[in-house]
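Re: the 289-residue chain
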Amino acid sequence: SKADTFNFIGHSRGACECIMAAWFLYAYGDEKTRNTPVNILAIDPVPGPGTWWSILTQLPPNVVNYVGIYSWDQSYNLNVQDHAFQALVPRPNGRMRGEDNNITIHSQSWLDWIKRYPGWGVMANEVQQVDPLLPDENRPQPKGYELYTCRGRHSTIAGNTTADGNYDPTNTSSTVAPVPELIYKIARGYLTEWGSRFSTPCAVEKGVLELRQEIHTFHREFDVMGGGATRNSTSFPNRPYVRRISSIWGRNPNDTYYMDDVVGDPPYKLSYPVTTERKNKGWVDWKFL
């Protein structure tokens, strides 16, 4: 490729594929390709059930910017389909942490082969770096690595304006629409900053501040999406209305964190329902949209 930068954007599994593509460029590209900077804007990356390969949970050295946007109201509630929507938070690379950015790619072993792990899937098995979801008050914030959360469900932040996050076109809501409009503006902003050029003007005329004000003024439908205005449950254990996210590779579906633990306390002026049990904020600071 003659490109001097790769800008990737994706939603759900498409966002996960952006991370995988960066690994493939680094592992299989020629010298120029593997050293070409990669920027990733990941909108609610969700690998789905099954094995989370190690190349998903660790950013390769060629990624210079990672922006992840995660939906707040995709809970882990009694709706079984929500259980498959645990979100992926990849670990920042050495460049982002101001540390050594060199790695040695793991080659497929006999044990990997016996487990039917593909060669590409195990490349990062031995280079899993600092977990962004664990507490560490002494670690400085990474550069080129930003984590956002926004009200709405998995589909909402990708453009769905229905009142419940499902796909009934007769159930659209004007009070839900500001979320996908905001994410659209943010995506265009980052892509423009990274060098992408758009042939058409931005389709959203409202400003970011106005959209955020609407989201946090008219938030009833977002509250209902995720289990109510408060996420505490008096009937069920294990915080069923709190989303689970993870930065851990493997097949164990319980290797997750409660999202309202790791993000810390939302600004009190913003309408983010949380639980009283939350604790152990991760060392990376999240931004609340």
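The mean pLDDT is 94.
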